[in-house]
Specification:
about 600 residues, alpha/beta, Rossmann fold, GMP Synthetase, Chain A, domain 3, five-stranded parallel sheet, five-stranded mixed sheet, globular
């Protein structure tokens, strides 16, 4: 079926008479939600929103972790021609107030009592008139969503269907506030047509089987997760919601999904866990041997074929199959998006028999621009551009895009909207290249390029991705913009570093003491020196700054999709960075 609006996705799913569209985790087991129940729930919520006077174009916010009610509320808002405004559940009270005020949201749906209290604390200084709460919270300040959902109709509602179909492709569907690695959040306006043009072709060629399961754990407030869920529902996949990433391992074991979609940070953590479990004899010997076997079979894996040698079968039995078992053991499709995966990480997965299909996109492009598919896959690239998207490379290397999925502009920011385009092409802000076969490669963010005081440009992401392959490194951030030389700030992976310290009889009472220890400093200096051997002279990292904290979205050092927020990190550690460079200049004379 063809789709022109997101309401077509809902009506298509609910017209399919499926007994399992969604799964939600309850006390003892996973409970299915059928297409009929989904329809009933959406109509019940939509009727209440309509009774509150929510009309086409009105904004309604969603503040929740991933759960069925998130998607139900989203569909209810869209069915009225209203505009959904997602808010990350981890955002602060002030960040939430900014989005509510900037978007002019008239109503909001929240998940828990914690999120409800966040809203009640600021409601008087926002335009929010009505609040829905998903949990059974005792309150006089919000309406319980469960009751509303059960009041929906069992049979099709002609009025609801007609209103849903009256929404047009050019109507605004959502305002998504970019988490942004720099600067203030701004709302990207995406129409129904923007999103459905992407949904229609982003998963072409993946051979997804109707009824297969995918776990929805990446935050739905981010465009990648929301797009993926819409696209999977459209293609008959069952969504299982995992509200807390801490429970992902359990969900993988219980559901054994066929599709796994994650951001690079998740793939990095999985690799770290594998290395942690294989650090001691004899596991380390077996692991090293298995990797060497897998490396020889890498081309076969990347071609989408199963290696057939006896040694690979043994390595698979002893090591690789156990990694896949931790991911459920039944996954056929692995997709990565949201940030650059890094060639070396993709190679490691290929060596253990997992081909990751890396894609690329932005909030402003709804989001997918390019993706590797089973039939067109090239390591080190983000795949070929989608069939309905045009890509070209500007003279300065910036990737430019145009097509039906490109957004209409930034909410209430006409100048920034104009600045985002050049001659009708959207400026992605990424530096990249198209090869002779049409595969797109992304080097770095244009704003992230570091220009030393000597005038040399350094792309930090490839260097950082190489460093993060070491399991003792949690996050690495290359420094050096307008400085005499490049350096690196490292947040260690403390669980493994603490184990290393104990083995090496290093006494410490805190992370501060640990990173200040000369042996620890020498350990990380050695890692960086090893990497320097493969870098150009002007790229070589001259200093290593260890910090005693792990980065997170809550402290402003990572975005909500776990990408490095350079400005936040540099501001937080400004004094330490300045002192490091000052000492270096004194030594240099």
């Amino acid at each position: 079926m063809g789709i022109q609006t997101l309401n077509d996705v809902l009506l298509g799913v609910c017209g399919s008479h499926r007994d399992r569209v969604m799964l939600q985790r309850q006390v003892l087991d996973w409970v299915p939600i059928s297409s009929a129940e989904l329809y009933r729930n959406v109509v019940g919520v939509a009727r209440t929103l309509q009774s509150w006077g929510i009309s086409p174009g009105d904004r309604v916010a969603i503040l929740s972790e991933n759960r069925p009610e998130w998607t139900i509320t989203d569909f209810a808002i869209l069915s009225l021609g209203a505009v959904a405004v997602p808010i990350y559940s981890t955002q602060t009270t002030e960040q939430t107030a900014f989005i509510l005020n900037d978007s002019g949201a008239r109503a909001i749906a929240v998940s828990t009592e914690v999120q409800l209290q966040k809203i009640l604390a600021i409601q008087e200084r926002t335009p929010v008139e009505h609040v829905l709460v998903m949990d059974a919270v005792e309150t006089a300040h919000a309406v319980h969503m469960q009751r509303l959902m059960l009041q929906g109709p069992v049979d099709p509602d002609p009025e609801f269907d007609a209103r849903s179909r009256a929404v047009r492709p050019n109507d605004l569907a959502t305002i998504i506030y970019t988490s942004g690695t720099t600067g203030t959040s701004k709302g990207a306006m995406l129409t129904h047509g923007n999103l459905t043009s992407n949904i229609a072709c982003s998963l072409e060629g993946f051979g997804l089987i109707r009824g297969a399961v995918s776990i929805s754990f990446l935050p739905l407030s981010h465009v990648t997760a929301r797009h993926v869920d819409f696209a999977l529902l459209y293609r008959g996949i069952t969504l299982a919601y995992c509200p807390d990433i801490a429970h992902l391992s359990q969900a993988l074991a219980e559901l054994r999904p066929a599709i796994f979609v994650a951001v690079p940070r998740i793939y990095e953590k999985i690799r770290q866990q594998v290395i942690l479990k294989t650090t001691r004899f004899p596991n380390n010997v077996i692991y090293g041997w298995a990797l060497s076997v897998g490396r020889k079979q890498r081309p076969t894996t990347l071609a989408g074929l199963q290696p057939a040698s006896f040694s690979w079968s043994l390595a698979n039995h002893l090591v690789f199959s156990k990694v896949r078992a931790g991911l459920g053991g039944r996954t056929e499709v692995f997709i990565s998006g949201g940030a650059p995966l890094g060639r070396e990480l993709a190679e490691w997965y290929a060596d253990i028999g997992i081909r990751i299909h890396e894609g690329y996109g932005l909030t402003e492009t709804s989001p997918v621009i390019a993706v590797n598919t089973p039939g067109a896959h090239k390591l080190g690239t983000v795949g070929k551009p989608l069939a309905n998207v045009e890509v070209r490379i500007a003279e300065d290397g910036e990737v430019l895009v145009r097509g039906p999925s490109v957004f209409t502009g930034y909410w209430n920011r006409p100048q920034e909207t104009r600045d985002a385009f050049v001659e009708g092409w959207f400026k992605t802000g990424d530096i990249g290249a198209l090869d002779s076969e049409g595969y797109l490669s992304i080097t770095d963010r244009k704003k992230d390029l570091i220009k030393t005081s000597g005038g040399k440009f350094i792309a930090p992401q490839p260097i950082e991705n190489s460093l993060k392959l070491n399991p003792l490194i949690g996050t690495a951030v290359v420094l050096g913009d307008r400085r005499r030389f490049p350096a690196v700030l490292i947040s260690p992976h403390f669980p493994l570093l603490e184990d290393w310290a104990r083995v090496n009889k290093i006494v410490f009472a805190s992370h501060e003491e640990l990173v200040a220890n000369p042996k620890v400093q020498a350990l990380y200096d050695g890692m960086v020196e090893e990497l320097n051997k493969s870098l150009a002279r002007f790229e070589k990292l001259k200093r290593v700054l260890l910090v005693p904290e792990e980065f997170s979205a809550s402290d402003g050092t990572l975005t909500h999709t776990l990408k490095v927020r350079r400005r936040g990190i540099e501001e937080r550690y400004r004094a330490m960075i300045d002192e490091m460079y000052k000492r270096a200049e004194i030594i240099a004379g």
